[in-house]
Amino acid sequence: MAEGVLFSIAEAIIKTLGSLTAQEVALSWGIKDQLRKLNDTVTSIKAVIQDAEEQAQKQNHQIEVWLEKLREAVYDAEDLLDDFSTEVLRKQLMPGNRVWKEVCVFFSESNQFAYDLLMGHRVKALREKLDDIHADSRRFNFDVRGQERASLTTVREHTISSEPEKIFGRESDKEAVKSFLMNSNYELNVSVITVVGIGGLGKTTLTQHVFNDEQVKAHFGVRLWVSVSGGLDVRKIIKGAVGTGDSDDQLESLKEKLERKIEKKKYLLVLDDVWDGEDDGEKWDRLKELLPRDAVGSKIVVTTRSLLIANCTSTTKRHDLKGLSVDESWDLFRRKAFPQGQESLPLSVDEYERIRKEIAKRCCGVPLVIKTIARLMSLKDIAQWLPFIQQELPNRVHNDNIIHTLKLSYDPLPSYMKHCFAYCSLFPKGHRIDVKSLIQLWIAQGFISSSNSGGGSLEIDGLSCFENLLWRSFFHEVEKDRFGNIKSCKMHV
Q1: How many CB atoms are closer than 10 A to CB 98?
Q2: How many other C-beta atoms can be found within 10 angstroms of the C-beta atom of residue 153?
Q3: What are phi and psi of 489, to 5 degrees?
């Protein structure tokens, strides 16, 4: 999902070219004329980049080759303009008046006339290369796109809610996990249940609802939540439970801190999103040795996609999370696809039933997929629903194609929003992202700028971009302040 970079670079090149050609101190008239022509060519190419990238995603080999040539030329242009910008800055910083500067440059080792000649040849060669690429693009009949703000404005305002995410069709699952936690009739002082299932089923959401249940809160003296998002790293898990951040304390010291925090109370510990790793059995045994065992009825909940982890950690039982039923899937889909308060669907009985069955069959009851598809469909005419479902969705959802489903929601995004999303991949998996800091980073990188702004402040536009990505299911585990404002989140991919 790294598309959009070409568009952003082309936009930056156009901005730099405009700045260079407007400067009196730039270079000789001949090169300035070449720069203007280069600007025109890059502007024309930029207008078709988004359509080219979208068509290339459909496995069009010829367009992929064309994009590769363009990518190489654009990077050459970026390097060339770096050289120009350096030269312009050098001349601006030289002491004396304009005549004195020209005399100094003429008698310097880097004679300006020779420099102009060399740069002139470089610009001309690059412009001709880009002209050929632009001419070649005509055979593909790319659509010309204007400023890309359509995807922002089509997101309905009501979709970003301050209410906590509800769970659909998980009442029996919640009761099963809750019953295990509330039951003290186990031989072991500390018992473990593992919630296991493929990605997107809602393991974390279900566990959060159990964790925050009022009866569960009253039952345990201490509740601890550790977002593992990795293998069984014993030190990381104990640090997470203690809340020591970047502390360099040794394991024994961390164990003492954990014991002081729990104070021999009955505790609930959640280890969320544990993956496969090396020597899982050995690490799990080591972790159990470090956890307090004083209070009878203490419980650990592990969420994982891995049966290996489930078999390794469960002391008493494993809870396999299944997909939603057909009715539950359709109820969730309908709630996400239509505005709040709309009770009836403008469909015939036959259309209604066909779409209902296709959604159930292809989404396999996976809530993340259902929500993603529903929100995507809400942006389409209902007449397009069935053809889209049958032609674009995979036949069935498995671990390896949930990303494909999310990509369907990603592809229509404007380039600058794709760039914002791609930037988030720099954060480690499982990292809790501070939203205000993320928006400032987007602005600092130039992803949110006046060229794609809606006329408001850059911070407001950045927040709109984030909310759009959140609405499309790219983020989860959203944390809000007491006023309902989003503070932090994690990435789904």
Answers
A1: 11
A2: 10
A3: -165, 180
- Quick one: the chain helix, strand, coil %, rounded to 5? 60, 10, 30
Q: What one-character DSSP code corresponds to residue 399?
A: G
CATH code given to domain 171-320: 3.40.50.300
Residue 406 has pLDDT above 90, yes or no: no
Question: What number is the average pLDDT over the span 25-29?
Answer: 48
* Cross-strand bridge partners of residue 268: 223, 299
Helices 112-137 and 29-56 cross at an angle (nearest 10°) of 30
Rounded CA gap, 72 and 440, in Å? 30
Identify the residue with better confidence: 483 or 181: 181
Q: Is the pLDDT of residue 106 over 90?
A: no
* Cβ atoms < 10 Å from Cβ of 342: 11
**Tokens (6 digits) for 182:** 């509330």
Give how far the C-alpha of residue 251 lies from the chain's centroid of Cα atoms, to the nearest Å.
Answer: 34
pLDDT value of residue 12: 73
In whole angstroms, what is the distance from residue 453 CA to residue 448 CA?
Answer: 7
Structure tokens at 485: 């404002």
Write the DSSP assignment of 400-447 as a string of letters: GGHHHHHHHHHTTS-HHHHHHHHHGGGSPTTPPEEHHHHHHHHHHTTS
Residues of the chain with CATH 3.40.50.300: 171-320
Give mean pLDDT, residues 173-177: 95
Q: Which two tokens stand for residue 430?
A: 């499982």
Reduce the DSSP state of residue 457 to 3 states and report it: coil
Distance CA 365, CA 330 (A): 9
Is a pLDDT exceeding 70 seen at residue 164?
Answer: no
Q: What percent of the chain has pLDDT over 90?
A: 21
Characterize 355-393 residue by residue with b for buried, 16 or more Cβ atoms within 10 angstroms of its Cβ, and e for exposed. bbebbbbbbbbbbbbbbbbbbbbbbeeeeebeeebeeeb
Contacts of 271 (CB under 8 A, 6+ apart): 226, 228, 237, 300, 301, 302, 303
